[in-house]
Specification:
10 helices; 11-stranded mixed sheet; alpha/beta; Peroxisomal Thiolase, Chain A, domain 1
């Protein structure tokens, strides 16, 4: 099977624009979660929202030729930063654009006075507008599979490259914080009372966040610093619309299949967990690590920094973890203090520097979806 490489990676978040800037903020212990008011919540809540002042900067960076939504601006800024790093021609028919999201332009539901056509609430319409702004000749592909969308987008790009259906893929994921999504998690009693605390015994739920992250995938490395995707798979536990399998069957199956694709069942040096801070997810993930023989592998969640960014979470966390791998850094899981009986292992709580070769990224989502991928450094 041919290899697939991550030749470029970028992101933006409430912490600012650019992967380098965001990674420095993470290492400094800065979180994007802030207390805010929401019409969907009875009390102030914590979320990681991008300020309007930051959105105003995007127009200067992308110089759009048509009116764009906030999410579309986020995607185009990320895409242009990716293109600035890598020799990727959107006009080449062998190159494709994959857009991953859970809710897309959901904010259009609340805007009555706007220049944006209402049809752009459709993922396909929005993706085509962004693809045209970037100069793509191929129709874009949309991946929307709840909170595993970002990881699924990477896996799809990898499959298309390996099948010879394209040479390079730009994969970008984005989602917004809106009263629509906040009310959804409130109805499930899954929004945190205060700051989220992934894997902690006193965790009460999620904090939502918004961001955009992207990668360029290629069948050939552009430099010795490019990372290689060596394994990846997805599964569905068919357990419940919003709750994972208590026995962790789906995620365990995905992890074990992923590890079986590596040479001699290679173990990762760290795990970038989904770690939402909800009661069921964290217990299930911990059990999946145990069942897969990964109980001694360091792991962390980034939800205490960026919140749960829905369909963008898996790609965002892959991008940040890729940078952590390059810098031989295990990141702290913000919000964790005390282990409980339902979580088998304790996440990393401090920055740790150690020579590393690979990491595993896990993701789970509504509808029983699970996905994971394994990334390693290219031989020098």
């Amino acid at each position: 099977m041919s290899a697939t490489y991550i030749t470029s990676a970028e992101m933006l978040s409430p912490l600012g624009i650019g992967l380098d800037h965001n990674f420095q903020q993470i290492k400094a212990g800065v979180s994007g979660l802030k207390e805010q008011k929401s019409a969907a919540a009875r009390t102030p809540i914590f979320c990681a929202a991008i300020a309007e002042e930051q959105v105003a900067e995007y127009d200067h960076l992308i110089q759009p030729t048509v009116p764009l939504t906030k999410l579309e601006k986020m995607v185009l800024v990320t895409a242009k930063r990716l293109l600035a790093q890598h020799n990727f021609d959107p006009r080449d028919p062998k190159n494709i654009f994959i857009f991953c999201t859970t809710k897309g332009n959901i904010d259009l539901l609340f805007e009555s006075d706007t220049l944006i056509p209402k049809g752009r609430i459709l993922f396909s319409d929005s993706a085509q507008v962004m693809a045209r702004q970037l100069g793509f000749t191929n129709l874009p592909i949309v991946v929307s599979n709840a909170c595993i969308s970002g990881v699924e987008g990477i896996l799809l790009g990898r499959q298309l490259i390996q099948a010879g259906l394209c040479q390079q893929a730009m994969v970008i994921a984005a989602d917004l914080v809106t009263d629509f999504t906040i009310s959804g998690f409130y109805s499930l009693k899954a929004y945190a009372k205060g700051l989220c605390r992934p894997f902690d015994k006193d965790r009460t739920g999620v904090n939502l966040g918004e961001c955009c992250a992207g990668v360029i995938l290629s069948g050939k490395p552009a430099s010795s610093k490019d990372l290689k995707i060596i394994a990846g798979t997805s599964s569905n536990d068919a357990n419940h619309m919003t709750a994972p399998s208590r026995e962790a069957r789906g995620l365990s199956q995905a992890i074990q299949h992923c590890l079986s694709q590596t040479e001699e069942d290679q173990l990762p040096d760290f795990i970038s967990a989904h770690g939402t801070g909800t009661r069921y997810n964290d217990a299930m993930e911990s059990l999946a690590f145990q069942q897969s023989g990964l109980g001694e592998i360091p792991f962390f969640s980034l939800k205490g920094i960026f919140g749960h960014t829905l369909g963008a979470a898996g790609l965002l966390e892959t991008v940040v973890s890729a940078e952590a791998l390059k810098q031989n850094t295990i990141l702290p899981s913000i919000g964790f203090e005390n282990a409980g009986e339902d979580v088998k292992y304790q996440p990393a709580t401090q920055l740790v520097w150690s020579p590393m070769k690979s990491f595993l990224k896990t993701a789970s989502g509504f509808g029983g979806g699970n996905a994971c991928l394994m990334v390693e450094k290219s031989p020098s």
